[in-house]
Recover the amino acids of this structure.
């Protein structure tokens, strides 16, 4: 059977482990970085490196990078018009490429705080400050030349992101009784693998751990575990949202590696 080609746009905190996982799944993997100095690292991991910058315009061999079956897009979103225009150019390039499927990484920050659980990925109240991100999703979602599945990740932890380091001792944290929405790196990878293996295209998923402890409880425990003094938490409850992962569990039959945020704190080391 011919190997599938998987292109990862942005080999950073999430993109690099994703690329490595698909190398291990016997894909031919292309990975982009903005600096040529990272090429050696990618090569050592079995990833074909490309230097590609998407800012006011696209720089790099984007045409060859897009000679692929599946494109994984994970880039920090910026509101500036040149950034948006550059990605409109990218969409046109994808239309002319061999790409048939796109996995687009977005954020649960597109949802407004409705003081309730959010289960519906289609009918919801947009966070007005994130409307541009929602429109950015639709650049890909609404294109008929390729199939796009969107994953809206909650706050990302794992790898180099130890939640015990999120708040310093002298920090005062508001709304500390609000439930938190986080997801571990290993589950991010597992969900992407499940979507591609099961060919779940043209779908939007919310991705968060199953449990939602309060901000005060979780970050106090995480900080103390590192032997540090926790921040000052103002124990009040204002606006919040709870991100449900039920669609992932039922539609993908995905079993979370770290469903319980408090129980999984033991994996983090100083």
């Amino acid at each position: 059977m011919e190997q599938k080609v998987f292109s990862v746009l942005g080999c950073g905190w999430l993109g690099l482990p994703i690329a490595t996982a698909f190398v291990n799944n016997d894909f031919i993997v292309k990975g982009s970085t903005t600096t040529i100095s990272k090429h050696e690292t990618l090569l050592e991991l079995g990833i074909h490196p490309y230097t590609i910058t998407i800012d006011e315009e696209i720089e790099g061999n984007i045409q060859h990078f897009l000679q692929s079956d599946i494109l994984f897009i994970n880039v920090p979103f910026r509101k500036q018009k040149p950034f948006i225009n550059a990605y409109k150019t990218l969409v046109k390039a994808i239309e002319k490429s061999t790409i048939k499927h796109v996995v687009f990484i977005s954020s649960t920050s597109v949802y407004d705080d409705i003081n309730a659980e959010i289960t519906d990925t289609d009918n919801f109240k947009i966070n007005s400050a994130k409307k541009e991100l929602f429109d950015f999703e639709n650049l890909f979602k609404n294109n008929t030349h390729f199939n796009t599945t969107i994953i809206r990740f909650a706050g990302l932890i794992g790898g180099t992101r130890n939640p015990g380091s999120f708040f310093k001792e002298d920090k005062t944290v508001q709304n500390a009784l609000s439930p938190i929405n986080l997801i571990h790196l290993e589950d991010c990878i597992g969900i992407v693998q499940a979507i591609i293996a099961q060919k779940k295209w043209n779908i939007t998923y919310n991705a968060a751990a199953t449990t939602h402890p309060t901000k005060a409880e979780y970050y106090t425990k995480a900080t103390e575990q590192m032997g540090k003094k926790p921040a000052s938490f103002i124990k009040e409850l204002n606006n919040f949202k709870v991100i449900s992962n039920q669609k992932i569990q039922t539609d993908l039959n995905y079993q979370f590696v770290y469903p319980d945020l408090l129980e999984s704190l033991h994996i983090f080391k100083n």
Remarks:
- The helical segments are 15-24, 39-44, 62-65, 81-95, 131-141, 185-198, 215-225, 246-251.
- The chain has a mean pLDDT of 94.
- DSSP finds eight helices and 15 strands in the chain.
